[in-house]
Amino acid sequence: MTTPISVRIEKLVAGGDGITRLDDGRVVFVPNVLPGEQVEISLAETKKDFARGELLQVLEPSEKRVVPVCPHVAEGCGGCDWQHIERRNQGQVKLAIVTEAYARTARMDVQPEMRRLNENSRRTTVRMVSNAKGELGFRAHESHDIIPVSECMVAHPLINEFIKQPVLEGAGEVTIRVGARTGNIGVWVHEGKLANGLPAGLKTGERATVTEVVGDHEYKVSMGSFFQSSPEAAELIIDSITRKLDKLGVEGGYLVDAYGGVGLFSLAFSHRFDELLLVESSESACRDAVRNLADCAATIEQENMDQWDSVEADVVIADPSRHGLGKMGAGAILDTGAPVVILVSCDPVAGARDAKYLCDAGYKLGEVEVLDIFPETHHVEVVAVFTR
Q1: Are 112 and 153 found together in one domain?
Q2: Are 305 and 327 in the same domain?
Q3: pLDDT by residue (tens digit) across 209-247?
Q4: How many C-beta atoms lie closer than 10 Å to residue 282's C-beta?
Q5: Does residue 78 sit within a domain?
Q6: Which of 345, 348, 383 is nearest to 365 (CA)?
Q7: Three-point CA angle 256, 108, 235, nearest 5°
Q8: What single-letter DSSP state applies at residue 4?
Q9: Nearest-CA neighbor of 168 among 152, 146, 141?
Q10: What is the rounded CA–CA span in Å between residue 103 and residue 97?
């Protein structure tokens, strides 16, 4: 370990860490801190122009620092990296991070609005690991060590009830997904073996499907497919998009649902458009989309957006992974000629970069909304509308 250094934290940045600067000008990223705090760190990783610090102690804490409610944080659980930040302040910090990402990456001055989840909303999918005793838990921060967890404060009650019993025999890794509004429980074992005595009706395997209700629609979601963190989170995003379409008076026409997953947006907006085209690279998600959109005038193409042959569209809704559209994905969307593009980004920097791609090609950035659907963590969803 290097010699401890006392530093002042400037601000928090995308990724959740705080930053400070060394005397030689290098930026240092430090986890578990707040702006303005004086902290003691050691340098855990050093590069030519930046370093990563390990927090040793907080010398002068921020007045907005709180003691994490969850006891597993003190034990080292790496699941919730922002529990040291007062809950109502987390959203303000996320707003500042998104604003700066647009300013630095896209050279755009935005004033986003914030919307939060209902306090009772909980995550319906978790990936957990177990030790040799079969005790389930989460990985420690930046470590392979396992922190046993008998109850997770951000997980849905159905998950917490389920993990009270042994799920795996010995060491292993598993994804658990529940249907908050149907009571379905699914388990996908990545490593290890399921324990005996699990509840009857349990859905098992990568292809097993859990049914969830979002708004007025039912969705079949395979264990191997991506879905939003909760039905409430999905509804918040859908509502954000709905209000943007309403303001623009969009009704009818051809919708391209890019990176469309299991058909969340296609089904939600099936009443609004005359034709739907969902483009998705995941085989699992496409199988789900075929079932979910069986009663819609929808076409489903299993294709990576980078290689997709664009078609003309009136509206594109794009919800890429944290890597964003990238130049190729943005190009595919530009080739549709759509007058309206709605971009859902789960990484502020990638979202800002994609905004620049679109605006450089002639789009005008409209409303930007920040959705705090991952409380107690730095993760954030950004919904932005572009028109031309």
Answers
A1: no
A2: yes
A3: 999 999 999 999 999 999 999 999 999 999 999 999 999
A4: 19
A5: no
A6: 383
A7: 40
A8: P
A9: 146
A10: 10
Judge whether 375 lies within some domain: yes
Token pair listed for 327: 């130049």
pLDDT digits (tens, 9 = 90+) for 253-263: 999 999 999 99
Number of H helices, E strands in the chain: 8, 22
For residue 210, the enclosing domain spans: 125-222
Residues 282 and 359 in one domain: yes
Between CA 98 and CA 199 the distance in angstroms is 43
Contact 366, 244 (CB under 8 A): yes
CATH number at residue 272: 3.40.50.150
Same domain, 106 and 147: no
Contacts of 240 (CB under 8 A, 6+ apart): 115, 369, 371, 383
Q: Are strands 340-345 and 381-387 parallel, antiparallel or unpaired?
A: antiparallel
Rg (CA), the chain: 22
Q: Looking at the predicted structure, is the pLDDT value of residue 54 above 60?
A: yes
Residue 328 and residue 260 share a domain: yes
Would residue 76 count as lying in a domain? no
Whether 26 maps to a domain, the answer reads yes
| Predicted confidence (pLDDT) per residue in 164-222, tens digit | 999 999 999 999 999 999 999 999 999 999 999 999 889 999 999 999 999 999 999 99
**C-alpha to C-alpha distance for 363 and 337, rounded to whole angstroms:** 10
CA separation for the pair 133, 169 (Å, rounded) = 8
The closest of 190, 171, 78 to 131, measured between CA atoms, is 171
pTM of the model: 0.95
